[in-house]
Recover the amino acids of this structure.
């Protein structure tokens, strides 16, 4: 079980950890975390999403992390927090298993170039390849079968999961997490049409990833054409995201799964990008923009706010009718104009 | 050629295999399978998609698998089946090359933890890493360069293609197929905003995959936040599908390529999910729902049926006009209301 | 720095390379390439995208590649070309670092089957697995940790990046580039419903890739059901593209990131497929068709031109109103018809 603390904790200890207040018995002891629906009296639970509020009445949890305003509806011990979601995150961290590789362990099967600089405290897994002039920082853990290209620089305390490919010269900051099979630094998609075929435009830039960035599994981030592709600090990127050459993603922006950014799109700071949202090339999005899932962003956005596209889902029989009319909207509007021109008769 | 049987088969033999009846010469012998367009007199062909019915008249096939009702239009030997598609599947299985690894072969380069339990009949390919306390069942074949995390349990007769990553504690049932480079058990996408940045919400659940599930290449299935992400038995998932934390996909549901499911979406049994369809988080879809390709499912569905979204494709010049009107639909409807209020004059 | 030539070049030398004319000083020497915004007097820059024309006035570049018509607006040395984009591509190629593996180097960790034929000049990286009866052509470079299946044929001068999986019998032409973690030859998605569950339809075809094809990272190309999946010569495919079984992509067509093609779609030659565009199965698209990004192509296209779908992006508050009306379009059109029937009163 990974949802148990390594040792039982009292509510007083946990409240101190998260900067909250205990309501009820501070000496009450819990052994792990669970959802409101699954919790037993030995568990600490939490309310961070309003849609689960009804479960507060029926939960068997020994204690619950919640906001001051939700506390009234709870009849169990509680840790009251201004930010229950962040408080839960801090508590749950106590349940994360420690990696069992001793610091500085290098797998015997790893192939590390003689010119690479691996910090003595870094951990390198089985079948990892580290290229010439690469640098790997203190406390960084590279899981099995990663390919680290020539002159790649990885900062301190990074965590790189299996089968990640970092092409030559890619730069990662500190505390960067990259999930399995992700590719960073592949060639941008650049071709020039010449007579009857396409010739490759060499992709001479690289990719720079800031501190505290997390990148999901199966994400692709292409190297820049000349300048670099840039992911600024604190950005969080989900799985299967495609980031083309020379994109810039501003600090602390969050990108949900399967989103895609065409070349040279510049995204601001503190944006929230929904799943499957797709951005045209060479556009600019300002800070604090929220893009709904599956939105097609075809032009620049200069005003913070929420943006959407699409038709919403419908039963297919009704949808087919609406689509026919959508096709004919220009004709429909002309019919309205004609009616208006006929005007009220008098 | 992989479309040949290992030895010639008579129509009588094949009809018995598929539970069908021979029309024509039961002793007629065929050596493999081919499409109606490509077949020669040595081939068995099939009609499983009505749009290829015209090819029945011109095919050179020695025999054809088809339904009773299509038999009238055929002038060659036939195997008549209530379910020609399933019958073809059974026949084609005779053409699949046998893997040439003897049972129980463990590649010398594989790195298997001393505490892992690998069944004596399992096959482990080159450069595979198997973590501590992992279990691998009878007859399971793991192709080269897979990373099997600590405490992963893989059932019997599974087939895992190269470069698959299974994170710690992931559980696979029996007869599960996982195609190349797929990732199962990566962290769900959970962050809590705290002051001016995002802190990671540890993902403490795992992923459980039922019996007889097939998962395509480059698919990602995230581990649950606390509870597990669940793929029930008999589910078939195509390539490049994204399944977020705590999604549940009900038994025998089929998911086409590039579909995506946001966190905690619950999908019913026997659903058909079209390619590129995307599901919002925390919604519920009942059994036997069919979602058209590229549909954005933004709310729960409680009634079986077919659902769609989108505008359909148009020539871009016409499309641009419709889009302008779509933007102005609210104004357009107001104009209609005004005309209605003016009413017929009398 | 990868944006430097290996040695300085005069404009005369570079103009000869690209088939252009020097405007200004032919003996002027440059040491690398840079964008108009970043260039110094030692750099050659270029104008290939009209939106960057204003930068021509302020650039510090020592020389610029541009068209005859843009030359008037430039006040620096220039290389005038009929096709500045192709000219830039040729110049930038001088900046690409040479791979530092000597021809014919086979990593000691590679596992190559005794029956495989590897050309003496091919380069094989660490942890590569090459299957039985595979053939690898002259000058081809296979980076670390690729899995090359049984009977795969790879032509001459190909470049295969890390963690690529080629399933058995896949055929690649000459000068093919495949980026990291891409999968070619996985099973097509074929299942027949039989009683209450799905049985697998064996995928007996393979994949054939023509000469001069480039395939991005994380792309999946499934093997055919019986016939092969075919990518014709000169096709360029971006990252995270999904190509299902028996798709044919015609010569010199370009496919941007995250596009997806369902089974048996046939795409013509010289098409331009935008990012995220999705194609239904069994449709045919003629030559020289341009599909806008995120378009859902649900039927065949027989006329060259530009095609689109979707609603365009809007502020969410306005969008919600339009979506409600879209749902009701059939009723709206009936209201218009009623108004028309009431007619002008006279």
């Amino acid at each position: 079980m990974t949802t148990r603390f390594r040792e039982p904790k009292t509510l007083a200890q946990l409240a101190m950890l998260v900067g909250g207040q205990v309501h009820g018995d501070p000496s009450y002891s819990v052994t792990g975390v669970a959802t409101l629906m699954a919790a037993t009296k030995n568990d600490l639970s939490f309310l961070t999403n309003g849609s689960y509020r009804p479960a507060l009445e029926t939960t068997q949890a020994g204690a619950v992390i919640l906001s001051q305003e939700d506390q009234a509806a709870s009849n169990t011990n509680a840790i009251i927090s201004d930010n229950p979601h962040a408080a839960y995150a801090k508590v749950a961290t106590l349940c994360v298993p420690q990696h069992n590789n001793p610091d500085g362990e290098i797998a015997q099967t790893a192939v590390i170039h003689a010119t690479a600089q691996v910090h003595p405290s870094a951990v390198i897994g089985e079948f990892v390849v580290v290229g010439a002039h690469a640098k790997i920082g203190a406390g960084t853990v590279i899981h099995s079968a990663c390919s680290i290209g020539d002159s790649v620089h990885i900062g301190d305390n990074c965590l790189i999961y299996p089968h990640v490919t970092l092409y030559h010269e890619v730069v990662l900051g500190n505390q960067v997490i990259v999930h399995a099979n992700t590719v960073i630094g592949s060639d941008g998609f650049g071709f020039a049409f010449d007579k009857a075929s396409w010739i490759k435009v060499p992709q001479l830039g690289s990719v720079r990833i800031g501190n505290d960035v997390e990148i999901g599994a199966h994400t692709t981030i292409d190297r820049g054409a000349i300048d670099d592709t840039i992911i600024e600090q604190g950005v969080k990127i989900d799985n299967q995201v495609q980031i083309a050459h020379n994109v810039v993603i501003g600090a602390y922006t969050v990108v949900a799964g399967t989103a895609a950014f065409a070349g040279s799109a510049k995204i601001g700071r503190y944006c929230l990008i929904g799943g499957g949202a797709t951005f045209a090339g060479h556009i600019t999005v300002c800070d604090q923009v929220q893009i709904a899932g599956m939105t097609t962003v075809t032009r620049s956005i200069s005003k913070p706010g929420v943006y959407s596209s699409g038709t919403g889902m419908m039963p297919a029989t009704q949808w087919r009718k609406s689509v026919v009319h959508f096709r004919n909207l220009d004709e429909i509007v002309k019919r309205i104009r004609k009616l208006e021109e006929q005007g009220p008769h008098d």
Notes: Chain B has three domains: 4-95, 111-307, 316-346. Chain B touches chain C through 79 residues (CB under 8 Å). The helical segments of chain B are 11-18, 55-58, 68-71, 84-92, 316-327, 329-342. Chain B is about 15% helix and 30% strand.
